[in-house]
Amino acid sequence: MFYSEGESILCSEDKVTNRPETCAVVVTYNRKDKLKKCIDGLLAQKFVSTDIIIINNASTDGTEEMVLSEYVSEGFYYINTGANLGGAGGFERGVKEAVLKDYKYIWLMDDDTWPSDTALFELLKTGKALKENWGFLSSVAYWTDGSICRMNIQKSNIFRHIGKREYSMEYAPIKMCSFVSLLVKSDVVKDVGLPIGDYFIWTDDYEFTGRISQKYSCYMVPSSHVIHAMNRHTRVNFATDDSDRIERYQYIYRNDVHCYKQYGLMGVGYIVLKDGYTILNILLNSQSNKMKKIKVLWNGVMEGITYNPEIKRV
Q1: What is the pLDDT of residues 276-288, one digit of tens each?
Q2: At what angle do helices 63-70 and 32-43 cross, to 10 degrees?
Q3: Distant-in-sequence, close-in-space partners of 314: CB < 8 Å, separation ≥ 6
Q4: Taking the mean position of all CA atoms in its chain, how far away is CA 131?
Q5: How far apart are CA 208 and CA 221, in angstroms?
Q6: pLDDT tens figures, 9-66
Q7: Parallel, antiparallel, or unpaired for β 50-56 and 76-80?
Q8: What are phi and psi of 223, to 5 degrees?
Q9: pTM, whole model, 2 decimals?
Q10: Could you tell me which residues come within 8 angstroms of residue 77 by beta carbon, excluding any fewer than 6 positions away?
Q11: Which CATH architecture has domain 2-228?
């Protein structure tokens, strides 16, 4: 099924009651080759199947032509937003669509996520084995060289990422994680609200998963694997980024403040430590634009203090 803002073209609609319980939501922007490999991975899932929603943030690289010519079929939904809503806006839209379509589970991922053929099966198997009413489950993300992807290591609390012990468990409790293979229940979304689309980019995943884990038990599932095919195997590093787009980092510092201030003094302490370290790193390691970067960081923090975006509900 294809949707474009302001119009819709219906190819087919699955009305049968035995359709998959899960719908994968993939947000894409100008990475059609990686998106193709992501979709192929979704269609190749073993033992379980998933319907698919593709949210295209108005890509200009031929993404739409590729998707419409190769993939549109029953249980496959394509939405062109008509504008770049950012990753956050795309996930807000996609999760809403999946809930409205009455899927039980929503499987979130970026367009450069390549799931193993049992990634979904392992998540669902763990979810159905859990006795409690869990909120979300997260896969282990590897980089293309087979090492754990640094960008996607889950957090067991505000200050700590998981370590070797958690990877050896059947499932490990976590509090925050990325949208690189996240399985969440529609009922949980109805309870806590959608991801915050107004964030545009960065921290929307931590805010959303943190909001869920304050009410529900949530887990990382080591047996569920995906590859996160990032161009570079590095965390975001404002200090060493000398691109011509450093102003966009204001989003991360604004969003971080909004996300973590909800955790009271512990969250404020985290922001002070994190941003203080970043300023020191800028002063010591940036090759250019040191004062401009510090100004961008400061403006983001100041904006975040009063920033209060709407959490939309379905």
Answers
A1: 999 999 999 999 8
A2: 30
A3: 96, 99, 100, 189, 190, 194
A4: 26
A5: 19
A6: 222 234 455 899 999 999 999 999 999 999 999 999 999 999 999 999 999 999 999 9
A7: parallel
A8: -80, -10
A9: 0.93
A10: 1, 2, 3, 51, 52, 53, 54, 97, 101
A11: Alpha-Beta Complex (3.90)
